[in-house]
Amino acid sequence: MTPAHYALAVFLMSLVTFLPRLLPVLLLSKRSLPAPLIRWLSYIPAAVLAALLGPALLAPAEKIELGFTANPGIWVAFPVFLVAYLTRSLFATVLTGMGLMALWRFLL
Predict the structure, then answer these.
(1) What is the CA radius of gyration of the chain?
(2) What pTM was computed for the model?
(3) What contacts 1, CB < 8 A, 6 or more positions away?
(4) d(CA 56, CA 49)
């Protein structure tokens, strides 16, 4: 491939990445969405987060493992979720998770 082909590939990939973000803004910015649709859309971030976290916490090695030493992530997640709920602070939540995982690995 020539450098022009690489440049064209990068341009087309950036276009494919940018268009799905731009089109909804252009098409929906002047319209108001119905309340039920807005309410339904508000659940999407939580659903995506659950879909990402669920498998990572329950089956980190592609096998469900709930043992105390085999899967520390699931056990550390409980106090981290509590901190997130009580403080509503991303910084406190991440700091708690990192601290507890470091402590877990140090002690075990």
Answers:
(1) 21
(2) 0.62
(3) 9
(4) 11
Residues contacting 33, CB < 8 A, separation 6+ = 41
For 36-90, how does the pLDDT look when each residue is reduced to its tens digit (9 = 90+)? 999 999 999 999 989 998 898 888 888 888 887 888 889 999 999 999 999 999 9
Which residue, among 28, 50, 26, has the nearest Cα to 37 in the 3D structure? 28
pLDDT value of residue 57: 87
CB 64 within 8 A of CB 74: no
Residue boundaries of the structural domains of the chain: 33-107
User: Are the beta carbons of 83 and 92 closer than 8 angstroms?
Assistant: yes
Residue 8: per-residue pLDDT: 96
Q: To 5 degrees, how large is the angle CA 63–CA 102–CA 79?
A: 70
Asked if 101 and 68 count as a contact pair (C-beta separation under 8 A), the reply is no
